[in-house]
Design brief:
The protein folds into five domains: 172 residues, Rossmann fold (3-Layer(aba) Sandwich); 171 residues, P-loop containing nucleotide triphosphate hydrolases (Rossmann fold, 3-Layer(aba) Sandwich); 157 residues, no CATH class; 124 residues, no CATH class; 95 residues, no CATH class. 34% of the residues lie in helices and 21% in strands. The protein is built from 27 helices and 31 strands. It has an eight-stranded mixed β-sheet, sandwiched between helices. Strands 9-16-13-10-12-11 form a six-stranded parallel β-sheet, with helices on both faces. The chain has a five-stranded mixed β-barrel with strand order 17-18-19-21-20. The chain is elongated, with a radius of gyration of 42 Å. The termini are far apart.
């Protein structure tokens, strides 16, 4: 009996135009959620003349959607999956010799292109839900465009989207025709239920689900950010739902049969409440759903270039994603969408989620391009090109993993890595582990680290316990399905890597993990549970975790923050580090200023990246390096740490004076600012044997500054700017070149009797400022005109001072008097 004709869907009206567009070339199809594009379009194109019996490959972002779409199309044809319509996803394939439509996940297409660049037997590649802009979808489109342009001009490309701006995509596809299918299958009413300020998301979603089930017939689909929120919400709903409602989770880590239960129609007379992540946003019809509850958040990966780590962040949904979620309620009948935020916040949602390519770890992309023979992404066509800085960092990682050479060409090891459906880190671990005879364990670890933690919520982070659970016979019911899935992936990896399935123990777990994350080899530092990473930065592990007592760890999973929290790791010995990273361990002589001890620390260190493996004193440090470190110390402490004397400061000021008077003669700049900026030039040559602050006391600073004066000027210094001046009394007194009245001479008045002209220096260009002092060396007068002082103000000084100092001479004619020599000349 032939299958019943399918009910009409909005996309049906656009199919003739789409067939015509594809007959001429590439095309873009835009259709609102629920229009039916995923299951109607491939079937409608099977008999197109330009296809000539060749296959259609349709990409879906998720495994669940790929399986569901294939089943629905097969059911439409009245066939089993694997006949005309089949699917290929990781660990599961249902295709046969008669298969014309293959629904595949995105990574499958990339690997197929790498092994068969011509896509032999394929006439059309469909990129479904392209608005999600996954990294694999962007790469797949870039590679198929390259194939189409160079090898297969007859190949057709069709991009389908519910929310993406079609114009840029059409331009990328060579001015492709844009076909639009307007309208949902059924209208959806949006209702807003603002969340309580102090409420947790699980509480609010659970309340909204109970309300929806009470107010509306049919089943409910609630969107939550992740598995943890789903479990908490399920806990709130347990025992609180109507008797006819089944509570079903739906997220990526669930076994396939559990996912299928969530999307199958409810049993007669029953309803269901499905708690789902973004896995249910697109390409998926969950039978019986009439109501959607949207919590408004999703989990998004964020790659941090500074740490080289990716972490999941909970973020608000975009307006486009909210529209997709809302559309799930109108697939089979009119529906209702409850949004857990005020209506005015709709305007605050960003229009679209950012493309994954602009914020993702690009190491997988870089390896795929290297295998494709492309070193520069600009050689391909992209809707959004990979950011240059992120791509450069990805290539640096691939070089560190020996996947590409210095020119960016893929290496033999890189080719083995590219053949594995793993991140390059894990692929390197498997390839290198297999070469070292630990392939089975490496495959088990790669499978474990590709999936959710088997012991999620466990108190310890030890990967060895996960390996034992994977290989053992006993497991809790909650972990059994996940364990079986990991085992299946490990078997696939062993087959692809050509590794026998022998049990090679768990003793080398840390060494294998270090192969994947050489930048996350950790050494204990400071307090209990605190570690330093070889790639820089720090990490912590719970203080009560047994691993916190290990000196070294190989870290596999963290929360990705700057001071990362360790989630999964394994012990590592220094001997394993020495053996595994011998070529990367550098011996460095570290000679640097230690501000705490105010001394030059000279040590020899052996380092793996930022990790110090061995640190000991350096017996014979290089003298120049010690001097350079001492210079750095002086710079840090400031010039006041140097042994300044009155004569040295005077020399500095005298040269500064001459530099100002004779600017063109080449007098050096000995100011503090310049001396500090040029310490290495003038101070370093005088630091022989000086390695700590206390040693600076024996430094001949005067000689160091004098050496800055060119030889041709040294003989002029004392003549032009003498340090001392002989006064009429016969005393040689210091000239002050640094004071406010500089150059100045402070002298007792009686010592200047008989001198009628003000002393001058600098070849007579500058008159000294004479500060005349009382016999008790207190200021009496300041003048630059000594003759004028004698003739004028002196009389007042004499009249006032002669009674105070009667034993001292106060002649009426000081210009003609004999100077008085003091008892003591300073």
């Amino acid at each position: 009996m032939p299958p019943a004709a399918p009910a009409p869907l909005p996309v049906d009206a656009a199919l003739p135009g789409l067939r015509a567009a594809l007959a001429a070339g590439n095309a873009v199809l835009t259709a609102e959620p629920g229009a039916g594009k995923t299951t109607r379009v491939p079937l409608a194109l099977l008999d197109a003349p330009w296809l000539s019996g060749r296959r259609i490959v349709m990409l879906e972002p998720r495994r669940l959607a790929a399986r569901a779409a294939a089943r629905r199309m097969a059911a439409t044809l009245g066939e089993a999956v694997g006949d005309t319509v089949g699917y290929r996803v990781r660990l599961d394939s249902r295709v046969g010799p008669r298969t014309r439509i293959e629904v595949v996940t995105e990574g499958i297409l990339t690997r197929r292109l790498q092994s068969d660049a011509e896509l032999a037997g394929v006439g059309l590649v469909i990129f479904d839900e392209f608005h999600e802009r996954s990294l694999d979808a962007d790469l797949g489109l870039a590679l198929t465009l390259d194939v189409q342009g160079a090898l297969r001009p007859d190949l057709r490309l069709l991009a389908m989207s519910a929310t993406l701006d079609a114009a840029p995509l059409a331009a990328l596809l060579g001015d492709a025709a844009v076909v639009t299918a307007a309208g949902r299958s059924f209208p959806v009413e949006t209702r807003h239920l603002p969340r309580r300020r102090d409420g947790r998301l699980a509480d609010d979603v659970a309340a909204a689900v109970r309300r929806a089930l009470a107010e509306q017939p049919g089943s409910v689909l609630a969107f939550l950010p992740g598995e943890g929120e789903i479990r908490r919400t399920a806990g709130r709903l347990a025992g609180a739902l109507p008797a006819d409602v089944d509570l079903l989770p739906l997220y990526g880590a669930l076994p396939a049969d559990a996912q299928d239960r969530a999307i199958r129609p409810a049993a007669p007379g029953r309803r269901k409440a499905v708690l789902a992540t973004t896995i249910a946003e697109t390409s998926l019809t969950i039978d019986g759903i009439g109501v959607v509850v949207d919590g408004g958040y999703r989990r998004a990966p964020r790659f941090d270039p500074a740490t080289g780590m990716t972490r999941l962040e909970t973020v608000r949904v975009s307006a486009a994603a909210a529209a997709q979620r809302c559309g799930r309620a109108g697939r089979l009948a009119p529906g209702i969408c409850y949004r857990l935020w005020p209506a005015q916040e709709d305007r605050a949602l960003v229009p679209f989620d950012p493309p994954e390519i602009v914020q993702a770890d690009l190491a997988p992309l870089a390896l795929d391009l290297a295998q494709w023979g492309v070193g520069d992404p600009a050689a391909l066509r992209w809707l959004d090109a990979p950011p240059a800085a992120a791509f450069a960092r990805a290539r640096d990682l691939l070089r560190a993993l020996d996947a590409i050479d210095g020119n960016g060409a893929i290496t033999p090891a890189g080719k083995r890595m590219a053949a594995l459906p793993l991140h390059p880190r894990l692929a390197h671990m498997v390839a290198a582990g297999a070469a070292a005879g630990h392939g089975a364990l490496a495959c088990d670890l790669a499978a474990l680290l590709s999936e959710r933690d088997l012991l999620s919520g466990a108190r310890d982070a030890d990967l060895r316990s996960r390996v034992e659970l994977l290989r053992g016979d006993r497991a809790a019911d909650a972990a059994r399905g996940a364990r079986d899935r990991v085992r299946a992936l490990a078997r696939q990896l062993r087959r692809l890597a050509g590794v026998p399935a022998q049990d090679d123990g768990t003793g080398g777990v840390g060494a294998l993990v270090a192969l994947a994350w050489p930048d996350r080899v950790a050494r204990r530092r400071g307090g209990h549970g605190r570690y330093r990473l070889s790639g820089g930065g720090g990490a912590t592990i719970a203080g009560d975790d047994p691993l916190a007592a290990c000196d070294f760890l190989a870290v596999a999973a963290t929360d990705g923050r700057a001071e990362a929290r360790i989630f999964l790791a394994a012990p590592l010995t220094q001997a394993e580090i020495e053996a595994q990273f011998a070529e990367r361990i550098a011996t460095l002589d570290g000679i640097a200023w230690d501000a705490r001890s105010e001394t030059v620390a000279a040590r020899r260190q052996r380092r793996l990246g930022a990790l110090v493996l061995d640190d000991r004193p350096l017996d014979r440090p290089d003298a120049d390096a010690v001097a350079a470190a001492m210079v750095a110390g002086v710079c840090a402490m400031g010039l006041d740490c140097l042994p300044w004397s009155e004569a040295t400061r005077s020399l500095q000021a005298r040269v500064g004076f001459l530099r100002a008077i004779f600017p063109d003669d080449g007098w050096p700049d000995l100011s503090d600012a310049t001396l500090r900026a040029t310490l290495e030039d003038w101070l370093a040559p005088f630091l022989a044997g000086v390695s700590r602050r206390a040693h600076l006391a024996r430094l001949d600073l005067h000689a160091a500054l004098s050496a800055r004066i060119p030889p041709a000027l040294r003989h002029r210094l004392d003549r032009l700017a003498p340090a001392r001046l002989a006064v009429p009394s016969g005393a040689a007194l210091r000239i002050d070149y640094a004071g406010d009245n500089a150059p100045a001479l402070s002298v007792r008045l009686q010592e200047m009797f008989g001198l009628t002209e003000t002393p001058r220096i600098a070849d007579g260009r500058v008159a000294l400022t004479i500060e005349l002092l009382s016999p008790a060396r207190r200021p009496l007068a300041v003048t630059r005109d000594l003759a004028g002082f004698w003739a004028g103000a002196y009389a007042d000084v004499r009249r006032e001072m002669r009674g105070r100092y009667p034993r001292h001479a106060w002649p009426e004619d000081p210009a003609g008097a004999t100077p008085v020599k003091p008892n003591r000349v300073r």
